[in-house]
Amino acid sequence: MTELKSFSLKEVKEHNDSKSTYLVIYDQVYDVTKFLEEHPGGEEVLLEQAGGDATDAFEDVGHSTDARELMKDYLVGDIVESDKKNRKKQERLTPAMQAEQSSGWTGWLIPLGIAMAAAILYRFVIAPSSS
Predict the structure, then answer these.
(1) Range with the poorest average pLDDT among 43-52, 55-64, 75-84, 90-99
(2) How far apart are CA 75 and CA 25, in angstroms?
């Protein structure tokens, strides 16, 4: 893998059209020029953010895990330390990702409650009336 370059925000700002399109997402610089025509949301969405920090716009859309993985192919560098916003990378969870992570106590508590209610209903209402 090639070594990543450091970019100032001023340098990134120069790449703001369809001939050279750079985006900053979480202080990392992506050259998405070759991806413009492939972007599912259309190239205009990327061009609106071209040459600037697109972190909020990227997160507002709720990109999938696959999209986040694909980003790695377009990574060309990092923002220089003096221009970094120093915000931590966070991954917003899509509904599918939330379902995968629902293995916590709520993942089993609700079904358990329903099963207990059904057992009580059967024991005290349905079973006595069958006799």
Answers:
(1) 90-99
(2) 10
- CA-nearest of 65, 56, 55, 51 to 18 is 51
Handedness of CA 50, 2, 39, 78 (dihedral sign): negative
Instruction: Calculate mean pLDDT across residues 45-61.
Output: 91
pTM: 0.65
12 with 63: CB under 8 angstroms?
Answer: no
The half-sphere exposure of 114 on its side-chain side, counting CA atoms within 13 A, is 6
Distance CA 95, CA 106 (A): 16
pLDDT reading at 38 higher than 60: yes
- What is the DSSP-derived secondary structure letter of residue 88? P
